[in-house]
Amino acid sequence: MTESEKMLKRQAEWQRSRSTISWKQKLEASVVMRKSLKGFDYQTRDQNVKIKSR
Amino acid sequence: LKDVAQLLNEMLAESIISNYAIFGAVAQMRYTEAVMTMDMDILVALPQDAGLIVLSGIYAFCRAQGYLPEGDAVRVGDWPVQFIPAFNKLTEDAMLNAEPAEIDDISVRVVTPVYLAVIALSVGRAKDYARILALVEEGVVRNEEIQNLAGKYDLADAWKNFEKRFGND
Q1: Over 60: is that where the pLDDT of B143 sits?
Q2: Which helix or strand (DSSP H or E) is residue B4 part of?
Q3: Hey, are the CB atoms on B34 and A18 less than 8 Å from each other?
Q4: Three-state secondary structure along chain A?
């Protein structure tokens, strides 16, 4: 297995591990992400419009 | 979250809506890792006598519970909740075939992975394609299942194009 294949495998495992937390925990994490974005300027245009309108 | 779940079930019990199912990013997160989303999307079916202003009953009910409109959504705790009447056969069937899940021990209805994927295919923005890829990568839906369901809703070509673009990655 090449180094990049190993890296991709580790990345996939990490992603899978994050998806095994409960739905409720993931929704709570999503709320934190949304609230964090409000303090920054690098939202996508679509998100930016929505954030400004709320 | 609990407030949203309670609100949905109360609206159902009071016949403000005749059916509902959570879809979009919030439904996706039941099956994949957490993603950023601005709001919670709920497909709703309305009673036949709902009238011309279809969402007025929902908004009035929410207001009576203390949940006020905010932009094109209703704010329920941390979540702006968007109520979207099922707008075609695909979304009607997605709602009918939704499966039960739980939020804080309260039962809610959630669109299944294969319907989430086919709705995403029908919308066709970059983030919708990312949703399909995430669902497939998690192994909660297979390409063949998406292909079969897409065919039922005149989306066979859209699926072919999707597979052409992303199928080998």
Answers
A1: yes
A2: helix B2-13
A3: yes
A4: CCHHHHHHHHHHHHHHHHCCCCHHHHHHHHHHHHHHHCCCCCCCHHHHHHHHHC
Q: What pTM, to 2 d.p., does this model score?
A: 0.84
Q: Are B62 and B22 in contact (CB under 8 A)?
A: no
Chain A contact set for B137 (CB, 8 A): 12, 15
- Interface confidence, given as ipTM, is 0.84
* B33: nearest CB among A18, A28, A51: A18
For range A2-12, the mean pLDDT: 78
Longest dimension (CA), chain A: 50
Q: What are phi and psi of B48, to 5 degrees?
A: -65, -25
Of A23, A28, A53, the CB nearest to B101: A23
Question: Within its chain, how far is the Cα of A40 from the centroid?
Answer: 15
Interface touch B33/A26, C-beta < 8 Å: yes
Helices B113-123 and B156-166 cross at an angle (nearest 10°) of 90
The CA distance from B100 to B97, in Å, is: 10
DSSP B67: P
The residue assigned the tokens 């699926």 is B159
Tell me phi and psi for residue B155, to 5 degrees: -115, 20
Q: Say if A33 is an interface residue toward chain B (CB within 8 Å).
A: yes
